Amino acid sequence: MTSPMSAFAVTTSIRATPERIWALLTDAAGYVRWNNTVQKVDGKVAPGERVTVHPKINPGRAFPVKVAEFQPPRRMVWTGGMPLGLFKGERTFTLTPGANGEVQFSMREEYTGLMAPLISRSIPDLQLSFDEFANDLKRAAEALSENQYGIQSRHQRESVEIEDAAGNIGI
């Protein structure tokens, strides 16, 4: 028998400013535009506020969390769980500026508390969702950065080519 997972993590380098990435991470309503792992995110991503995440991996379930730590544009922590510390889930987002305009994005979720070993057994393997979240964030932040500097993304170029081929004038 395999032991339950007590943590999931992902790290990736993103060619965008920390502020650009932070803007994506803190726009709850905007998650559905770039993040394929969620059905929706309700609430306001701000210090002390509550957010409810509706993940695709667990349809019909909603996970309310509190924005427990908020250090723009570097670090954010969402926490949720049971009273008295019986079970706690903590998701930490970290942005670390690096060389050549790249930012290292890290996301880690850890489960603790007296009930964690039991509850962790019912938590699906989230690693693929974490990987997809990071890839989606990278894609969105880099596309926004390209647009900021007047560089068209491949999708935008294809749209223009299709419009031109259809005889539409103008962009």
Walk me through what this model shows:
The protein has 171 residues and is of the alpha+beta class. It has 5 helices and 7 strands. It has helices spanning 18-25, 31-34, 116-120, 127-148, 154-165, and strands at 7-15, 38-43, 50-55, 63-71, 75-81, 88-97, 102-112. A 7-stranded antiparallel beta sheet has the order 1-7-6-5-4-3-2. A hairpin with a 6-residue loop joins strand 2 and strand 3 (50-55). Helix 1 packs across helix 4 (127-148). Residues 151-171 have low confidence and may be disordered.
Binned strand content: 25-35%
Mean pLDDT: 86
Main beta sheet: 7 strands, antiparallel
The beta-strand count equals: 7
Radius of gyration: 18 Å
Indicate the low-confidence ranges by residue numbers: 151-171
- Strand adjacency order, main sheet: 1-7-6-5-4-3-2
Residues in helices, as a percent range: 25-40%
Termini separation (Å)? Answer: 58 Å
Please count the helical segments: 5
What structural class do the secondary elements suggest?
alpha+beta
The oligomeric status of these chains comes to single chain
Q: How do the helices and strands follow one another from N- to C-terminus?
A: EHHEEEEEEHHH
Task: Tell me, briefly, the overall form.
Answer: globular
